[in-house]
Design a protein that fits this description.
Layout (H helix, E strand, L loop, with lengths): L1 E6 L2 E6 L1 E2 L5 E2 L19 E10 L2 E9 L7 E7 L6 E2 L5 E2 L7 E10 L2 E9 L5 E8 L5 E3 L16 E10 L2 E9 L5 E7 L6 E2 L6 E2 L22
Antiparallel strand pairs: 1-2, 3-4, 5-6, 6-7, 7-8, 7-9, 10-11, 11-12, 12-13, 14-15, 15-16, 16-17, 16-18
Length: 230
C-alpha cells in the first residue's frame, strides 16, 4: 500500500505492507517518495495515484504540484521493489486550462499493449470531470481528443463526477465513480467497450451512503476503490 502522509500541509508518499490485507506494518518509517526541491514542479506535493506492475518494474503515477492554488500535473516514478523509487524529472501529463487546470491520476489499465490512465480534472470553480490519456509505453502520453469522457449528466450526480476506479473484465471496461457536490453520498457505474466512450448505468446510483450497515456512513461516502483480482 502506498499512501499519503502530511507534514505542514506538504504531501509525501509512504509505504506499508500486509500478508492478509487487514493487518499492516510499515517496514520503512520514512517516505518512499518526497516532494522535489524548491523551484521544481512537485515541490509541494507528491501524492500517490495508481501503481501498475509492468514486467519487473513498478510504475507509480502521482499527483504533484508546487502551488496548491495553481496547476496540478501527473508525475511518474519507477521501482524494482515498490520501496525505492526514482522519479522522472518532469510531469508525464500536465494540467492545462479550463476543466483540467488541476488534474490527478486515479486508475491505470494496460490492455493489448496500450495503457489507459484515467484522471480527474478540476476547473477554477471546483467542478470535477473525468478524462483519459493513452500511451504505448507508459511514459509518453496523449490526452484523448474526446475528453472529458464522463461529466455530470444525471440528477443525482451534483456538480461533478470524480475518483474513477476502472477495471477491464470480460471484454468490457467498467468504472465506479463518486458524486461531487455539497454532499458526496453516492457512487455510480459506467461501462465502455473501448475505454473512451462510456455509458452510465440505468441503475445509478449503484450505492448510497444511506445503504451502509446501520447507517454508519449515512452522511458521506467517497473515494471508491474498484479492483479486479483475476
Amino acid at each position: 500500500m502506498w499512501y499519503v502522509g502530511l507534514a505542514n500541509s506538504t504531501a509525501h508518499t509512504l509505504y506499508a505492507e500486509s500478508q492478509d490485507g487487514i493487518y499492516w506494518i510499515r517496514p520503512i518509517s520514512s517516505p518512499v517518495l518526497n516532494p522535489g526541491n524548491y523551484g521544481t514542479w512537485d515541490s509541494h506535493t507528491v501524492a500517490p495515484g495508481p501503481v501498475i506492475k509492468d514486467g519487473q518494474l513498478y510504475k507509480m503515477y502521482y499527483l504533484g504540484y508546487s502551488d496548491p492554488y495553481g496547476q496540478y500535473s501527473i508525475g511518474l516514478a519507477t521501482s524494482s521493489d515498490g520501496k525505492i523509487w526514482e522519479k522522472y524529472q518532469f510531469p508525464v501529463i500536465s494540467g492545462s486550462t479550463g476543466w483540467e487546470r488541476q488534474i490527478s491520476p486515479h486508475s491505470v489499465i494496460k490492455k493489448d499493449g496500450v495503457y489507459y490512465l484515467y484522471y480527474v480534472g478540476r476547473d477554477q470553480t471546483g467542478q470535477d470531470r473525468i478524462g483519459v490519456a493513452l500511451s504505448n509505453d507508459g511514459t509518453n502520453w496523449a490526452k484523448y481528443s474526446g475528453n472529458p469522457v464522463l461529466t455530470p449528466s444525471q440528477s443525482w450526480e451534483g456538480t461533478g463526477v470524480s475518483w474513477p476506479g476502472v477495471i477491464y473484465e470480460n471484454g468490457t471496461f467498467k468504472m465506479v465513480y463518486m458524486k461531487v457536490g455539497y454532499e458526496s453520498d453516492a457512487f455510480g457505474m459506467a461501462t465502455s467497450s473501448d475505454g473512451k466512450i462510456w455509458i452510465k448505468s440505468d441503475n445509478n446510483p449503484i450505492f448510497k451512503a444511506e445503504n451502509t450497515s446501520n447507517g454508519w456512513a449515512s452522511d458521506d461516502i467517497a473515494y471508491p476503490c474498484f479492483k479486479s483480482w483475476q
